Amino acid sequence: MQDIDLIFSIAVLIMSVVVHEVSHGFVANMLGDPTARILGRLTLNPIKHLDPVGSFFVPVLLALANAPVFGWAKPVPYNPYNLKGKFGDAKVAAAGPLSNLLLAVVFGLVLRYAVSFGISPDAPAMRILDVIVVINILLAVFNLIPIPPLDGSKVLFSFLPYQLRGLQEFLERYWLIFIAFILFFLWNILAPVVALLYHLIVGVGVQV
Predict the structure, then answer these.
(1) What is the rounded CA–CA span in Å between residue 147 and residue 176?
(2) How far is C-alpha 131 from the chain's CA centre?
(3) Upstream peptide bond of 68 is cis (omega within 30 degrees of 0)
(4) Of 100, 46, 38, 99, whose CA–CA distance to 74 is shortest?
(5) Residues noted as catalytic
(6) Are 14 and 46 in contact (CB under 8 A)?
């Protein structure tokens, strides 16, 4: 059963990160940059997006360590100079986490009201919905952290005053240190945020 849970969690993660990346490309295309579309990346076919390390190796290691399953896909490329309108970078960057949050809300509301339609809380479908909600909340929260190369950094840099451009250079230079610090030491800060969002969407608590 544990092997089945692991396989299913990784499958949910893969599809969630694929939706995340396609959303970046879709918004970029809407704003005038066809790069992702030309390269065939505006597709939900996971083969076009899988990253061997982020889509398989890291999630398996985390699952075996009883940690939350997490990972990433190959970034969808776009040319920021083709984007029309103001704050194009921020819109493209925000599209990924917002797509995961939308998935979490949709499946979370189904989970929240499934019992009202006679579905047992112990039904396998409930476990499936639970995994989808947790993974997508985790992806949204983590990617909104304003540290390169995460999406939150592009949103931050789009609104950063010129006088604070030194902060951007500092974060871009030492991003690996900050990411490692977050992964190893700040999960206790991220976990309550994930749990709070889960509670707001589903109406009950979750162990993260």
Answers:
(1) 9
(2) 14
(3) no
(4) 46
(5) 21
(6) yes
CB 147 within 8 A of CB 182: yes
Instruction: Answer whether 16's CB lies under 8 Å from 139's CB.
Output: yes
Lowest mean pLDDT among 14-18, 29-33, 167-171: 167-171
Under a CB-based contact definition with an 8 Å cutoff, are residues 166 and 47 in contact? Answer: no
SS3 helix, strand, coil % of the chain, rounded to 5?
Answer: 70, 0, 30
Q: Which amino acid makes up residue 153? A: S
Query: Hey, what are 145's tokens?
Result: 């952290």
Tokens encoding 177: 């240190």
* Residue 48: half-sphere exposure toward Cβ, Cα within 13 Å: 17
Digit-coded pLDDT (tens) for 97-145: 999 999 999 999 999 998 777 787 778 888 889 999 999 999 999 999 9
* pTM of structure: 0.89
Distance CA 155, CA 174 (A): 18
